[in-house]
Amino acid sequence: MNTQTQTLIMQLVRNPTSYSKLKGFETCPRQHYELEIAKSTIREPSQQLEEGEKVHAALAAALQSFEPIAVEEYARYQHWVDRIQAVKGKRFVECKWGLTDNLKPCSFFSPAVWLRIVVDAAVVNGPVGIAIDWKTGRSENVKDDTQLILTALVMFANFQSLQRVRCDYIWLAENRKTTLVLDRNEADDKWDELLPRFEKLDRAIAENDWPAKPNYLCKRWCPVKSCPHNGR
User: Fold this and answer.
1) For residue 91, is it within any domain?
2) Does 80 reside within a domain?
3) What is the DSSP letter of 176?
4) Strand partners, 134
5) Which of the residues in the chain have pLDDT under 50?
6) Would you call 133 helix, strand, or coil by DSSP?
7) DSSP state of 134
8) Which pLDDT does position 221 carry in this prediction?
9) Residues contacting residue 81 through CB under 8 Å, at least 6 positions apart
10) Which among 181, 54, 95, 94 is positioned nearest to 130, based on CA atoms?
């Protein structure tokens, strides 16, 4: 990690955050403010979100119990569960990990937590780790690997034995996966790339500056109906 990044960490008041908060802020600061800061808007429940929660719960139960997936309509995903269970090492299901603002491991609900990561499934075997994120949407809607990179970085911090982490998105509807592999010696460079993005969120909080950012979600999907760009 370079000196400029270390100075940035020391100067900022770091606010507890996560990948989803960073993604929401970068998608539209105004929407992020209304949903996460002011809480003046509530995201409406959707069939897709409810279905995703059911799928995640069914797969987690199967991983923990070593029993077949109990929900018949999700049985077609059993082969993905079997693959994870076949990997040797210490297994984690729906694990929650945290980092402090100086990038040290801490509990998810620690008063000192800065970054929170939730991983659907993970396996740690000495120097090698695997992290799994179930995806019920379409792969074309995910434009970058930020979530996977953050997962690997948090695992490096929490497991000092790890030298390499493989992170997989499992696209259940498409029956395929996409993979990112990160080595420990790449971690500092990745933090140097990522921390300035979090710094923009921290500055927006400090300066209470939340401009609207028109994008393809405005017309049909944004819940902030008070925004002039909302088309609903």
Assistant:
1) yes
2) yes
3) E
4) 170
5) 8-12
6) strand
7) E
8) 81
9) 59, 62, 63, 69
10) 181
pLDDT value for 222: 86
Structural domains counted in the chain: 1
DSSP per-residue string spanning 72-129: GGGGGGHHHHHHHHTS-SEEEEEEEEEEETTS-EE-TT-TTEEEEEEEEEEEEETTEE
Q: Are 36 and 17 in contact (CB under 8 A)?
A: no
Q: Residue 102 has which token pair? A: 């100086």
pTM metric for this prediction: 0.89
- Does any domain span residue 229? no
Structural domain span for residue 184: 3-207
Quick check: 69 and 75 in contact, CB under 8 A?
yes
pLDDT of residue 12: 47
115 forms bridges with which residues in the sheet? 17, 99
Question: The CATH number of the domain where 160 resides is what?
Answer: 3.90.320
Q: Is residue 217 part of a domain?
A: no
Alpha carbon 101 to chain centroid, angstroms: 17
Distance from first CA to last CA of the chain, Å, rounded? 45
